Amino acid sequence: MTLFRASLLLALVPLAGVAHADDTTAPARVDQATAARQADRLLAELVTHNSVPGMGAAVWQDGRIVWRGSAGFRDLAARRPVDADTVFRLASVSKLITVAAAAQLADAGKLDLDAPVATLWDGVNPEWAPFTLRQLAAHTAGLPHYQAQDADRGRIAYPRATDAVAIFRERPLLSAPGRAYSYSSWGYTLISAVVEARSGQSFLDYVARHVTPGLRIGPDATHGGDADASKAYALDGDGRAVEAPRHDYSYTWGGGGFGATASALAEFGGRMQRGQVVSAERFADMLVPARLDDGSEVRSDDYTVGFGWRTLTDLEGRLRAQHAGVTLGARSSLVTWPQLPSAEQTAATLLSNMEWVSSIDQSAAMLAAPFQAAPAGLVSGPCPTAATRFRGTLRDDDATGAAHFTEEDGSCIGTLQPEGALKAYFDQFPQPDRDTLRLVGLYPGHGLARAALVTPIGLYDLRATADGQFVARLGASSELRFTLDGATPHAP
């Protein structure tokens, strides 16, 4: 059984109450205690379904942490649970800390983000074509990512970022700067070296003093140095969690080597939105999509890439700025909504202690959903407790299976047993196969007007439609759409 803990900060002012079961539209917002219970349930269900040993999460809103959640174990062998103080590896979410350091120095007039990097630090390979910090941050400078010769990285400790640049300094660029997007964590090691050169401090010292003061964010200490650090896990060939090998991240502190508690990372995201790390104008500039030499926006998957941050427009038309990470013993995400009014600005984090295939950003966003205003136009209805099967499609394949629903504390909770192509879709990933999916209605008394679909690869946003269907987007090209046998029609 998954061990679950979660705590809600008590000094919160409740918002509008939950609507009654006979209302035909979803509430504008649930109260904080209800939101916390829903987030607790989602996190516990997620750990149950993805087989990750332990996860931590947090939501920041209106200047404070409004929820901390913990589920599972930080040490399987010792049965030590994840708690609010557990430190997880951030992997590439570390990049957001690195670009904040560079942007802060730009605010102070100590470097120019658009100047050739060779003019900012003399350790750059003189044979490289000129590129800027802005291009490094957007992965358009042409630097390579980890290559075959880096297979044994993590065995050597590098005192400073400027020392680590020697690993790749003599390698050729993959393309001319500004020509193409090519993801490169080595580019962030180089940004870290420039921060050292221009600040006169080691990269880690500069970050601790100026970027993350007072926050539980620092260099990875999974294998010693921090008693609260979670152990790092990997999946073996039989789908079991085993301890990952030791790894020294000093070759890329800025590209993927930080660790943090979930609440500390959420607070960092909040501070960025409040202009407390870099100026508000600078942060807005960091979110502007970078452009290639041909004028096209820099894109990867379904998001645009700016100065480190990735942005997209969510289902409600709101700008979402974020970054995800994956490395040995970690899958991580920081998601923010920086263009909302100050009281509605939100930051959500989801951290885990195993590398697993997931829609981690979407999962973090769903954990924040109970704390945000309900989307307009939701279609409410009773919980479909009489339903026995679901029928629909995923892409062009049939999506069918048994279904069972019940109400728990007013929330509509469902269990789906996928068959055929739908089960095969979720079984293709490395984590152990699951025979069930779960649905958790977000608004008590309003059925599945909006619900979280809990799967082995994350949490997805499911909405009821006026014609009696339920729809969840599982990716840019994968939409699950189904009806429920015996369900009462929803009310528009």
Automatic annotation (TrEMBL):
It comes from Arenimonas terrae. This is Class A beta-lactamase-related serine hydrolase. SUPFAM superfamilies: beta-lactamase/transpeptidase-like. One of its GO terms (molecular function) is hydrolase activity. The keyword Membrane does not apply. It holds the Pfam family Beta-lactamase. Residues 1-21 form the signal peptide. It comes from the Bacteria. Residues 40-353 form the Beta-lactamase-related domain. InterPro entries: Beta-lactam-related (IPR001466), Beta-lactam/transpept-like (IPR012338), Diverse_Enzym_Activities (IPR050789). Keywords: Hydrolase, Signal.
